[in-house]
Amino acid sequence: MSKNWLQQNWFLWLLITLLLIGVFTHRPLSPLVEMKSLQEAIVFFVMLMMALPIQWRTIRGAIAKPWPAILGSLVNLGILPGIAWLLSYVLPLELGRGLIVAAAVPC
Q1: pTM (whole model) above 0.90
Q2: Quick count: other Cβ atoms within 10 Å of Cβ 79?
Q3: 3-state secondary structure at position 24
Q4: I need a labelling partner for 37 at 20 to 30 A (CA). Which of 14, 46, 87, 96 fits?
């Protein structure tokens, strides 16, 4: 196993390790699920890590011209679920419900 291969696949190995920790220690760690401050810290950390690769120029551009983001949010959170709701009436019950759920999930 070369060093280069390990550098390229570090995230996969970290993911596998964390998955195995979760599978084998979920019972002793279950009280952590109830800790609201831990949940908020995890969400903050994940969002921070997702935002770090974004260039500052891109952020400034989105703040200066917010309409594309606003339009995308309106389509994603308003128009698309509405269309799915209307289409659910012409589909079988299970499929219609699944379409509504899939359309309501932000992407």
Answers
A1: no
A2: 12
A3: helix
A4: 14
